[in-house]
Amino acid sequence: MSRIIGGALPHIPWEDKPEGCKRPVWRYWGNPIIGREGNRVSNSVFNSAVVPFEGGFAGIFRCDSFSISMDIFVGRSSDGIHWTIEDTPIQFVREDAGSRRQRIGEAAAGMDAGMEEQGKTHGDGTGFVREYRYDPRVCFLEDRYYITWCNGYHGPTIGVAYTFDFKTFVQLENAFLPCNRNGVLFPRKIGGMYLMLSRPSDNGHTPFGDIFISQSRDMEFWGRHHHVMSPVQGDLSAWQSTKVGPGPIPIETDQGWLLIYHGVITTCNGFVYRMGAALLDLEQPWKVLYRTRDYILAPHELYECVGDVPNVVFPCAALADGDTGRIALYYGCADTVTGLAFTTAEELIGFVKEHSL
């Protein structure tokens, strides 16, 4: 039996598998759980991240405005299904040089001071240029919640910040050079290092994409880059033939790191996004143990097929209950609304192994 390594989450949103359902992932009956008008300023709410917080849930939500500008907002919920999302985007504060010196050592103090002065000339008061923010992930790591997102800085890169209370958000340096998307942290150190998955890209909506993993001692300087997986060439698994990218924070299990990811195919109507799953080695997670040949969820419902960007299911968050093995999966639908789906570690890992490339 496959087991989630982690604490209990007895109030996880849940719905039993419908009778007759033969797929490893099933949708919540009340989808979409968040419509276009998630807050006062939103044209759409999708590709967002959710974590347990103070007996309920908190999240960072991508809300595109009526001018289709992209930014991220705090949301809260008592049950993980009904959400209240703030009307004002997150206002980051910049981590001061003293805090950085505590993290990376006195040897870097001179460099930090120079970067502090340089940062004063740009952006929104934090010292960072603000162009756009979208597709956040949230990871509880050690003693705080880290937020990563696609951050506009002369092209897309990975922004990083942390919060303790979902009220004050401290922004760190961008993790990588442009161009990059889908920054996904691991929920614990491995071999004494922080790890992050990402999908290097170019400045546009790319017709390519591979997943890489990078390591850091201090959440600021990232290196030791390893390739994890590529799109699948040919007809063996065509749904993921154009690009792949990491989705929610990986779930630690006794079988390996359970990674839910998106895969894309280029069709006569453009890109179609589906979901897959993989198992990564626990101590060397750039090693793929199993990877699904068949997708686990595809855009079949109307709210997944019709919207601002048709035919997209895009996973960004997963809640996991270590006692029951239940998993609640949050995903963007047609770049317009937010959906919720369910599975279990036993069912999904069994499917990954049985239907592996």
What does this entry look like structurally?
The chain has helices at 97-104, 109-119, 302-305, 345-354, and strands spanning 26-27, 42-53, 56-65, 70-77, 84-85, 92-94, 133-141, 144-152, 156-163, 169-171, 180-185, 194-200, 211-216, 222-229, 243-246, 251-253, 256-267, 270-280, 288-291, 313-320, 326-333, 337-344. With 357 residues, it is mainly beta. The strands form 5 sheets. A 5-stranded mixed beta sheet has the order 6-10-9-8-7, with no helix packed on it. Strands 15, 16, 17, 18 and 19 form a 5-stranded antiparallel beta sheet that branches. The chain is globular and about 50 Å long.
Key terms:
357 residues; mainly beta; five-stranded mixed beta sheet; five-stranded antiparallel beta sheet; 9% helix
Please give the largest β-sheet: 5 strands, mixed
Query: Could you say which structural class the secondary elements and strand pairing correspond to?
Result: mainly beta
Q: Please mark out the parts with pLDDT under 50 across 5 or more consecutive residues, or reply none.
A: 104-126
Query: Using only CA atoms, what is the Rg?
Result: 19 Å
Secondary structure: number of strands: 22
